[in-house]
Amino acid sequence: MSGSDSLARGVAPAQPGTLHARSAADAVEVAPLPGLTVRFGRGPGDDVGVDVDLYVGRRDQGVSRRHGELTYLEGGWTLRNVGQQALRLPRGLLLPPGSDRTPLAAGYTPVFVKGSGFREHLVELYVVRPEQPYADGPAGVAGRPLPAAWSLSDDERLVLVVLGQRYLRHEPDPRPLPYRQAAEVLAILRPGERWGAQDVARRVEAVRRRLAGLGAYLSALREEPAPGARSGTPDHRLLTDLVATAALVPTDLALLDGVGG
């Protein structure tokens, strides 16, 4: 698990049930051994005996020194919050401190660790499936390789991350950022360039046209239809597909680091 690519874009084949976990500054890979526990959090300060296996938010006092535990029990991994603030999972699920163990599904799961103020720290988890594991390189759901059409240019990725940041944060009932607002954010991130709503629309439409012939592929990958009245809008469908196939992943939010608030 070296390098800067996200876990969702592929990990080396391993034994089914193997857990890959990564934060911004650390990574671990562990075999599925009954009773084995992987602890994550800010780590020790001056206290002796407070240690973790995966460091998360080491400079953020809002993250507990030991914030969460991943334990292999009864043939599967479970997640438990042992910290002082909530853990946030996809689809708006919150694990409050002291909550019961939550089973971890095979495949990719992002976990957001709440820190100080509005800060959140991403922990990427990937449990190797019993079927064909991910191969190196870009991959979609269930380890199927993504067609070349999914390859995004730097400009396209930046525009789509700005537009779809709520999807990447796995907020409940997400909406795309309006084009005009997305252009304002892009002007902050790229101050030497001219950005307008039409520039955003042109790049989004280019990606949509390129993926237009992949309807059958997307139908095979989609686990369930997106809920809500906005599921029929083109931008919602596009962003949902890009996130579902891991063409866009939560670590891409680092592209927004230049925007405050």
Automatic annotation (TrEMBL):
The organism's place on the tree of life at top rank: Bacteria
InterPro entries attached to this UniProt entry: FHA_dom (IPR000253), SMAD_FHA_dom_sf (IPR008984)
Keywords: Phosphoprotein
Domain FHA: 38-94
Region of interest (Disordered), residue spans: 1-23
Protein's UniProt name: FHA domain-containing protein
Species whose genome carries this gene: Streptomyces synnematoformans
Lineage: Bacteria, Bacillati, Actinomycetota, Actinomycetes, Kitasatosporales
